[in-house]
Amino acid sequence: MSTHKINRRKFLGQLSCAAIGSTTLFSTLLNLKTLNAAAAFNSSIIGGPEDYKALVCIMFSGGIDSFNMLIPRSQTAYAQYAKTRSNLALAQNDLRPVSADNSDPEGREFGFHPSMANMQTLFQRGKLAYVSNVGTLVRPMNKYEYYNGVVQAPLGLYSHSDQQQQWQTGVPHERASIGWGGKIADLMYSANNNQTISMNISLGGSNLFQNGENSVEYSIDPYNGSTGIEGYHDDYHFMLKYRKQAIDAMVQPVYDDIFKNTYVKTIKKSMDGNEMLSSVINNAPIFNNPFTSEHYFSRSLEMVAKTISGRNTLDVKRQIFFVEMGGWDMHDELIDNQRDLLTVVDEALGKFYTALEQMGVAEQVTTFSLSEFSRTLTSNGNGTDHAWGSNVFVMGGAVNGKQIYGQFPSLALSNDNWNSDTNPLDVGGGVFLPTTSTDEYFAELALWFGVPKSDLTLLYPNIGYFYNPMSGNAPIGFLTV
Amino acid sequence: MKKYIQICEVLCFIFSFYVKSNSQLYNDYLGGGHNKGVLITSSNQVSGTSADNTFNGKGLNADDMAASRFLSQATLGADRLEIEKVVRLGLEAWIDDQFSKPPSLMLPQLYAVMDEIRKTNPNTYGPAAIHFNYAWWQTNLTNEDYLRQKMAYALSQILVVSANSELENAGDWMASYYDIFVDRAFDNYRNILLDVARHPAMGYYLSHLNNPKTDTIANIRPDENFAREVMQLFSIGLYQLNLDGSHKKDANGQDIPTYDNKDIKAMAKIFTGLYGVIRPCPDEILPPECICYDSNNPDYCDTLSMTCCWWPKESEFGHNIYVLDGTKMMLMSDKDHEPGPKRMPDGSIIEIPRNGMAEVEAAIDFLYNHPNTGPFIAYRLIQRFVKSNPTPAYVARVATVFNDNGNGVRGDMKAVTKAILLDEEAWEETNYFENAPGKLREPFLRYVHMSRAFPKKADQKHYWNTGYYLRQVVRQHVLASPSVFNFYLPDYQPAGEITTAELVAPEFKLHNTATSVGYINLIHYGVFGSLLQSWEGSYPDNPDEVYLDLEALENISNDAESLINELDLLLTHGQLTDETRQILRQALDPIYWNFDSQYKYYRARLAIFLIMISPDYNCIK
Q: Are strands A53-60 and A365-370 parallel, antiparallel or unpaired?
């Protein structure tokens, strides 16, 4: 017994002191100190009963092949696409044509994947937009700088876990454990009178995106909604009364052990939140265009819509939802699998948008996609591997839709000739160096949601290298901020 | 209020105590957890016995408690007999005894399950994941190779395949894959890694099965999936490590990557040309008219998944998983294997012309021999066996043994197992008086533990469980993670106090507002309803469920304190706190004989339920 025990105590003691102002792991995170400073967020900017806003984050985990979602359909560009993608190219006639209002500098016309019928309609109605070739970046960089390492690149490029982490944290140069959805809730918590149910609601369980310094997500189940302790309010059996008393006593966070406190706090939060949330979900309106699919993605969006229906009962002005859909890591059988999954996605998004319109909140809810990376343009036989820049979509009544933002890259492969490169963005096998940083994409969403410009660097420490928060412009323009 | 306990000496004779002036006074009785603020001095220098124990009369069975605690690390759940066995043998002798137990393999058990099911329902589809689950539960509620099964389960969370894929329909692939870990639990990590690389379940899951070589004209290049994850998750990880698992730093204080994308592309070339062994056409389960193509009724046969007319005659590169035997290792087609040199991350070259499988072995050897692999695997195994936040010194001690078992052998899993379990940081009882936490128990293993700790009654003569309820409400079941990244990453930090303390707690990834309460409902159902359920029974005549048999426990339930003490031994290893004991007494005491004639039934079950959901049980030290 030994010195070990003493050392460990000492070790822990030092850690708790170091947590404030540490310059290593936490240097870019909101620790309590910076958070209090940032309490400059003024809840009076939140308006009256009509000032409700929600962000719905859709995480396509696994890395979605987004260059088979948004595809050039005009002749020359399609031919290039077909050549590069070889046996993974979709047929030109099958593409769903869309016509963006902003003209492509190379005059290209685009189409959507054949499974994306509802998204095509929403795009044409101006309710959906794409941002092309978005990816994690620490600093703006070109191919030369990337190859020679003279400009800092994101950690763990092409790795699922690292890139998922970075899309969720907005911190591509460190391994951070606080997500930018969680940080927004830390900053803006005072916008909601109801503090029992977190600003962050998850349909995908615990997740990094909604992990804040002070706030944790409230998880609900796509099928059952809010989960309560069965029989908690029943008294048909004498035992249940004593069970309830014991549970109530047990979930008080009075323990010295922080694991035990964390364990009971989650249960307590669930019990408190369930009382309110389950009645809201049970009293949700009947949707005219009902969610008929049993797929968890469809059921997740249905549950989001039901929760939004109770915003006034819950007395909340800001909500962030997280919906995760996996299965996109299609190293194999890409054509068939992507067709099937995109059909699920498209149908659910279509119904979700209709439900929002029915409830009169389409302009107050902005849905956006994340995925850790797109996939190589070239084939590995019948699938694709991990790439970098990808195409993301945003949907909502507030979206300046029917546009393709960012720069859609040439789909030619590089000849690796520095003097006359056939594609200066291709860093190998159809992996694109991003031309729009995730920071710009996220910042626009955060600004729309109400994060003050002065606090953007707390959320995205590198934003200043891509966007001047003090400029009068939006970072990208798909939302009016 | 903080408790100050000084144990000079223990063993049940209390020389003196006094109550601090700011503490609560109890007038009713001593014990029952009523010892807050008490300073105890007693007569013997034995570590591991606290004031709590002394007051509760438990100081006498400190050995039992220590054995129970050890088994919480070394097994997936144990009963009283095994606790007594550990007391009798001692830790190391028990481990040696376990090394000598023959492995309880999953594949033979799976075939036995299928035979039994098909005795009554010959056309039963499968084996599927559900049948693997039956076999797993049957094995792990009856086996004697506790330690081997614990290691197998731990390895299945590092070298991950999952039924959340086409493997849902391939129980025999899953069982055969899992048997790599059961069979080689105490073999050598090199052999485990090589078998994983060659197994068709992994070949399918990370898509290096039928992985083609480069075809520049068609713009096709080798699949990088397995190449990446075998490095990132199964062996060396993303960053160069010191022996103690900490990251090496470059001159600028930055982490040093172990490989880059060029290395992944090179590694991908190694894992090309692998293909599966075909299985015989399962014609006996097809209608006769489909044994050969029926031109009069072509549509009918097309609706079936396969007919034997076009079943491949020989195993060769390119056949898809539906015609493959998932229990036979993949073979190498040298003509489909990428020729030429492959550069490893350290600059060494692998090139063995016309012998792709030798290249696979060489690459596995490279990874296995990499200096990162010892600390990488040591850290992960310690997290599965003992605690979430091992000290760097503990990691270094285990990694040192991984690197050399003392006889010059690297990767010796027996030596690694002992290094983990016999380390002072694992067994030192005083650790759990500290606030330094152990780990959150995995929800799946909580349920396995509860199922193992008590006798059971089965409608049929087996312990089958579909696992679907667990998968649904707590999101965890063996071989059913969401992705190759397992149920959680080793460095996951839940928001709040744990993050602030810069600690990790992987299992908290599974603990959210939905699953934490789902778990409470799960336990209630398991204790008051049925414990395990299969889909093979029918109601009401022929059910197939398993129930806890708590007769022995009910017999001591008239004394709530005895009941709690017995459960503290079986479930919480002497770590039940005063707070929880008080809560238990307040719930159990009012349930008594003149209130209900079945009061013992309810006392025993409510006590188990409350302990199973208590923070004392769930946060094990």
A: parallel
Given this model, what pLDDT does residue B32 score? 43
How many angstroms separate the CA atoms of A351 and A371, rounded?
A: 22
Q: Is the pLDDT of residue B441 over 70?
A: yes
A71 and A112 in contact (C-beta within 8 Å)? yes
Find which of A336, A380, A388 to mutate to test the B interface (most B CBs within 10 Å of its CB). A380
As a whole number, the mean pLDDT across chain B is 87
Q: Give the phi and the psi of residue A458 in degrees, each rounded to 5.
A: -70, -35
> What is the pLDDT at residue A271?
96
Burial class (CB in 10 A: 0-12, 13-18, 19+), B28: exposed
Question: Rounded CA gap, A145 and A128, in Å?
Answer: 34
Q: Is B311 exposed, middle or buried (0-12, 13-18, 19+ CB in 10 A)?
A: middle
Closest C-alpha among B59, B51, B56 to residue B20: B51
The answer to whether the bond into B345 is cis (omega within 30° of 0) is no
What pLDDT digit, counting tens, does each position of A78-127 carry? 999 999 999 999 999 999 999 999 989 999 999 999 999 999 999 999 99
Inspect the interface and report whether the beta carbons of B591 and A238 lie closer than 8 Å: yes
Q: Are A78 and A67 in contact (CB under 8 A)?
A: no
- Name the residue among B205, B198, B193, B140 with its Cα closest to residue B167: B205
Q: Which of B507, B513, B515, B591 to mutate to test the interface with A (most CBs of A within 10 A)?
A: B513
The kind and range of the H/E element at B424 are helix B424-427
What local confidence, expressed as pLDDT, does residue A49 receive?
A: 65
Q: Assign residue A383 a region (left: φ > 0; alpha: ψ between -120 and 50; beta: otherwise).
A: beta
Q: How far is A429 from chain B (nearest CA, A)?
A: 8
Can the peptide bond before residue B200 be classed as cis, meaning omega within 30 degrees of 0?
Answer: no
Distances B581 to A12, A17, A250, B616 between C-alpha atoms, Å: 28, 33, 10, 10
Q: How many Cα atoms sit within 13 Å of A212 on the Cβ side?
A: 23
**Coil, helix or strand at residue B11:** strand
- Confidence at residue A416, expressed as pLDDT on a 0 to 100 scale: 84
Q: What is the pLDDT of residue B284?
A: 52
Averaged pLDDT, B66-91? 96
Q: In this structure, are residues B40 and B17 in contact, taking their beta carbons and an 8 Å threshold?
A: yes
Each residue's pLDDT tens digit, A114-126: 999 999 999 999 9
A398, A448 contact by CB (below 8 A)? yes
Dihedral class, residue B291 (left if φ above 0, else alpha if ψ from -120 to 50, else beta): alpha
Q: At what angle do helices B513-528 and A258-282 cross, to 10 degrees?
A: 90
Cα(A374)–Cα(A386) distance, integer angstroms: 7
B366: pLDDT strictly greater than 70: yes
pLDDT at B200 over 90: yes
- The tens digit of pLDDT for each residue in A311-340 reads 999 999 999 999 999 999 999 899 999 999
* pTM for the structure as a whole: 0.84
Per-residue pLDDT of B384-421, as tens digits, reads 999 999 999 999 999 999 999 999 999 999 999 999 99
**Which of A340, A428, A342 is closest to A388 using CA atoms?**
A428
B176 within 8 A of B107, measured Cβ to Cβ: yes
Query: What is the separation of C-alpha B505 from the centre of its chain, rounded to a whole number of angstroms?
Result: 16
Interface contact B508-A206, CB threshold 8 A = yes
- Ramachandran angles phi, psi of B442, nearest 5°: -70, 135
Confidence of residue A253 (pLDDT cuts 50, 70, 90): confident
Inter-chain touch A246–B616, beta carbons under 8 Å? no
Q: What is the pLDDT of residue A107?
A: 95
* CB-CB under 8 Å, A257 with B619: yes
Q: Which residues pair with B42 in a beta bridge?
A: B14
By CA distance, what is A382's nearest residue in B?
Answer: B220
